[in-house]
Amino acid sequence: xxxxxxxxxxQTIPTVLLVTTFVFLIIHLVPGxxxxxxxxxxATPDSIVAMRGALGLDRPLGTQYVSFLTGLIHGDLGTxxxxxxxxxAEIRQRFPYxxxxxxxxxxxxxxxxxxxxxxxxxxxxxxxxxxxxxxxxIGVSMPTFWLGLMLLFLFAMKxxxxxxxxxxxxxxxxxxxxxxxxxxxxxxxxxxxxxARMTRSTMLEVLGQDYIRTARSKGLAKTIVIYKHALRNxxxxxxxxxxxxxxxxxxxxxxxxxxxARPGLGKMVxxxxxxxxxxxxxxxxxxxxxxxxLVNLLVDVTYxxxxxxIHYN
Amino acid sequence: MRFLRGRKSRxxxxxxxxxxxxxxxxxxCGKSSKDTGVLKIAQTYDMKGLxxxxxxxxxxxxxxxxxxxxxxxxxxxGTKLQPALATEWxxxxxxxxxTFKLRKGVQFHKDYGEMTSADVKFSLDRVxxxxxxxxxxxxxxxxxxxxxxxxxxxxxxxxxxPALLTAxxxxxxxxxxxxxxxxxxxxxxxxxxxxxxxxxxxxxxNTETDLVANKKYWGSAPKIQKLVxxxxxxxxxxxxxxxxxxxxxIQVTDGEHYKKYKGxxxxxxxxxxxxxxRMIGFNQQIKPFDNPKVRQAVVMGFNRDKVINxxxxxxxxxxxxxxxxxxxxxxxNQEDPPYDPVKAKQLLTEAGFPDGFKTVMxxxxxxxxxxxxxxxxxxxxxxxxxxxxxxxxxxxxxxxxRKGSVPIWSVSWNQDPxxxxxxxxxxxxQYPGNNGFGYKNPAxxxxxxxxxxSSDDKVRSADFSKIQQQIAKDYVGIWLDNEKYIFALSKKxxxxxxxxxxxxxxxxxxxxxxxx
Amino acid sequence: MSVVLRQSPVPDPAVPGAGTGPSxxxxxxxxxxxxDIKKYFPIYGGVLSRVVGHVYAVDGVSFxxxxxxxxxxxxxxxxxxxxxxxxxxxxxxxxxxxVYFEGRDIFKMPAGEMRRLRxxxxxxxxxxxxxxxxRMTVGEIVGEPLSAHGAASGARRVERVKELLSVVGLQPMHxxxxxxxxxxxxxxxxxxxxxLALNPKLIICDEPVSALDVSIQSQILNLxxxxxxxxxxTYVFIAHGLHVIKHVSDRIGVMYLGKLVEVAPSEELFRAPxxxxxxxxxxxxPVPDPDAKRQGRVILEGDVPSPAKPPSGCRFHTRCVxxxxxxxxxxxxxxxxxxxxxxACHLRG
Lengths: 313, 516, 349
Description:
The complex is a heterotrimer.
Chain A: H1 2-29, H2 34-39, H3 45-55, H4 61-73, H5 87-122, H6 127-141, H7 144-158, H8 173-207, H9 210-217, H10 222-259, H11 265-274, H12 278-306
Chain B: H1 2-5, H2 10-23, E1 38-43, H3 58-67, E2 72-74, E3 81-83, E4 86-91, E5 97-102, H4 117-127, E6 142-149, E7 152-157, H5 164-169, H6 178-184, E8 198-204, E9 208-213, E10 226-231, H7 235-243, E11 249-252, H8 255-262, E12 267-273, E13 276-282, H9 292-300, H10 304-311, E14 316-318, H11 341-350, E15 358-364, H12 367-382, E16 386-392, H13 394-403, E17 408-414, H14 420-424, H15 442-453, H16 457-473, E18 477-490, E19 493-494, E20 510-511
Chain C: E1 30-45, E2 50-66, E3 70-74, H1 81-89, E4 96-101, E5 104-105, H2 111-117, E6 121-124, H3 138-148, H4 154-167, H5 184-196, E7 202-206, H6 214-231, E8 234-239, H7 242-245, E9 251-256, E10 259-265, H8 266-271, H9 276-283, H10 325-329, E11 335-336, E12 342-343
Helix pairs in contact in C: 3-4, 3-5, 4-5, 5-6
C-alpha cells in the first residue's frame, strides 16, 4: 500500500505540471495587464514600461515560465504582483480557513447526507422518503449564493443565532465554530443532497442483496444490519461522491467566502484572476491542484480499506 | 421490508440533535462593536498593502489616510489644502521650485523616531520611482529633491505642475519612515509606519485591518481607541452586518438602502457629491463614431434621467460635462444635450443611417456599469441601433478600452481636486491609451498644453472652460452622472462627514456610548 | 407425447381436516407448524404509484414439520417456495397466517425475542456468491451471530469459528480470508458453518445446491446429511426439482402457484403420486439412460401462469390434461387422503 501511495504521488508530478502550465498559458493569454490594473486610470506609457520591467513581465513568456518552474522546484511560488509579498505567505494566511470550510462542509454533507439517504432507502415510498428526496432535489439545485444569503437572513438577522460576517478568532474554538456553521451549511447542503441521493440508491440496491437477508437471518439488530452490512457495502459510491463533493466545494467556497466575508483561497484566486496577478493565480492553483490530487488519492486508499476485493500494487 | 421499517431511525435523530448542539454552542452572542473605543468600518475589498507607493484601490487609500500624513492635507470633509507635516511652503515665481518647512517634533509610530527631511526625501523619491510606484506619474514633474537641513525640503521641478500640491496631500504622498522601510523590506506593506493619527496594529487576511490611536499625534489626539476596517465583498451581507451592529460605518451604493436608512431614526446618513463622473464613451476612430451627428444622436437618444431616478434611486446626480462639479475649473456654462429621441432619429437619418447600424459595447461586469448599459442598449434599439452588449471583467474592459479596440465602453473617473490629469485624457497624444475616445482635436490639444504648462490661474481656468465647452460641442461621450458618496452610520458615531474624495479619515470622530 | 393419466374416483370433499392443512397426528413431536400462510406483494402502477394489483406469491399454505425430519418443498421457479421459506423465518412479513415454532407464534413475538429465536431457526441460501457479505472475513461472517447472541466472544469465538469451519470441511486458517477468495462449494460450506453457529434446531435449506456445479452438489448434500445426524437437525429443504430432494426428504410438499397441491412421505410420493402436477414433476427427473423407455411420462406444456393473475378454479387446470369443467371453476382444497398424505385435486385421492 505504501508503495502504491508513493507511486501515485510520483504520478501526480506530470498532472500538476500540466495543470500549472495550462493555467500559466490561460492567465497570460487572456487580455488585461496587471501593470495597467495597478497603475489604474492614469497609467502613462513610460510608467507602464518601467513597472513591467521591474516586475519581469517584459521577458518572453517562455523565460517567465521557466523561472516560475525553477521557483516551484525550490518551493518558491514567487511574489504577488498586487501585494508585493510572497505568494506562499498569502496562501498560508488563508489556507486554514479554506480547510476548515471544506472539511466542515464535507463533514456536514456526509454526517447528514448518509443517514438521510439510509432513512429514505429503508422506507422507500414512505413520506419520509418523499420529503428527503424532494429536499435533496431542492438542495442540489439551490444556488449557494442565494442559500447563503437566506441562511444569513434567517439565522443571523432574524434569530441572531450566528454572526453575519467573518471567520471568528481562530484561537477561540467556540467562536470559530459559531462563525463556521452558516457557511458550512451553505456549501454543505448541496453536497449533503448529493450524498443522500447516492446513499439512497446504492442502499436500495444493497438492501436487496442476499447477504443482507443473511445478516438478518443471523438475528442481528436492525441498525447493525443497516450500518454494518448494508452501508459498508454501499460505501464505495458514497465515498466517491464525498470525494467529488470536495471538488464541488472548492467552487462553492468562493461564494461562501464572498457572502459571509470570510478569508479563504477561493476568493483569493478569483481576486487574483481579476487583478491578473499571475504569480498568485499560479501559486494558488498549484496548491489547490495538490489538495485535489491528495483527496483523490485518499478516496482511492479508502476504497481499498472499504472493500477487501480491491487491491493495489 | 417490515424489518427495516419498524421504528424511526433513532440514529438519525441522535445525529441531528448532536449537530444542533454543536452548532448552537455559544450561539446568540453575535459580537458587535459595542465598546466605546472601537469603530468598525466596512469596506468592499480586503486591503492589499499599505505602502504609499502601492495603494491599488480606494480601500487602501482609505486606511492609509489614517496612518500617514503628507506634507499637506485636505481640509476635513473637503478638498481645500491645509498644512500638515509642512507648516508652510513657498513656490518660486517660475513655479518650478517648491520649498517646504517641516513641522518639528513629529514622531513616527512604534518608536521609529522623529520625522525629518530625510524621511520626506526618501518617501518622495520612492513614490516617483516608476519601477516600483504605481503613483509615479502623479509626481513625474519632480526633478530632484534637496534637504538643506532636517526641517527643510526643496523640490525642483522639470515643469510647472499645479497638480503637485494635491498629489502631496493624497495618501500616495504619505511620508513613510525611512528606517522602517529599510528594516522591514517586503514586509513593510503589512507593517506600515507613518505619523498619522492612527498607527497600524494588525492585518488578518480577508478579516480585518486594525489601527490604534496614535497617542503622540502632533494634531489633536484622536477620540477613538481603535479603528477596524472589515472587508465585506457582498453588499447584501454588508447591509445585514450593519443593521445587526457588527459594523458601524458602511458606504451605501443602492437607492433602496439609501432610502431605508434615511427614513430610519436608528441610523444616520452622511452624503456628498463625489469627485467622480460615470460615462459611456465612443471611440471616434471606429466608424460610424467618426461622424459627429451619429455621436450627437446617440447622446440625445439616451434617457439618463431614467437611469438616475428609476434604476439607481437618486444615489447620483445628473452630470453636466465630464468634470465633477466640485473640481476647481469646472465650467457650468456648457451644452448639456437633452433627451430627445425624435431629434436623435432625425440626426441619424441626416448622418446617413436612417435604419441605424450595428456596433459593440463592452462594460465592466459590475452593476454600476451594467445597469446603465442595458438601459442604453434598449434606448439605442429604439433608434434602430443594434448593440452587441458584452459585460466582461474589469481588467479586460480596461485593456481593450486602452487599446482602442472597442467602439463603446463605460467607466467612471475618480478625479483629483485639480482637473489636469482628466484634461490629458482628451489629448490626441494619449490615443491609444488614456484617451479612450480616440478624440483628436488640435485646438483642444493646444488648450490643454497651454493650461497644464501655466501656473497662472486665470489662463488655466479660461482654457479649462474652453476645453469643456468644445468637448460638449463635439459630443465626445455621454456624461451620465456624478455618484454621491453616501455613508450610513450607526447612531453612536459622532462627527463624521462624508467627503468628496471618499476618504475615511476618522481622527475627529467620536463614539457616543449612550446612543442607542 | 403425453399420456392420459389414470382416472381416479372423485374424492369426497368432506374429508376431516381438509382446508386446514395436514395437521400432525397427536403424539407427534411438531417443531414447526405453518397455518394458512399468505404472502401478497402489491403491484404499483400509474402516475401516483397506487396499488393496482397483487402478486399472490404464497396463497394459503399450511404444513407442519416434525422434529428431526426433513421436509422437502418442491415446485417450479416462481411457485412461491422461497417466499414461503422466508415468510416462515419472518424474514419477509406474512400477509396472513401464523407460524408456530415449538408451539410459539413467531409473528406475535417482540422484535428482541424474534432475534433470539433466529439462533434456533436458520437458513442456508441458494446463492453462495451473493449471500456472503463481501466486506467481511469468513471469521466475521461465521462468528457474527455468536457475538450478536452473546454466545461467544473473543478467543472463545475464534475457537468456535475454527471448530465450525472444521465441521463443514474447511481449514481453520480460512477464517481470515474473504469470501471472494473461495469457490462456490467452499462458499456454501461457509454459509452452512454460519447457519450452524448457534446450534439451530431448524434449518431452512433454500435450494442450497442449485447454484453449484453438479460435481459439488452431492458433496454438499452429503455434508448436510451428516450434519443432520450429528446435530439432530430438522430441515425444510426447498428445491425446484424432485430429483434433488428424493434422497434427503422424509416428507415432501409440492407447490404450484403459491399453493400446496400435494403432501406425502417421500417414498409414497415417488411411488404413487396423486396430483397430476406431481406426476409431471416426477417425469421431469432426468434418467441416467436416455434410451430407457419410461412409462407414463408427462410433459408439462405451456408456461406457468402469472401469480398476479392465477387461473380460476384449480390453478393447475390450464396445464392439466385431465382438467374438467369443475377444475376450471371450483378450487380444490388440500384434503387428507391417508395418514400422512394429502392432495388438492378434484380428480385424485
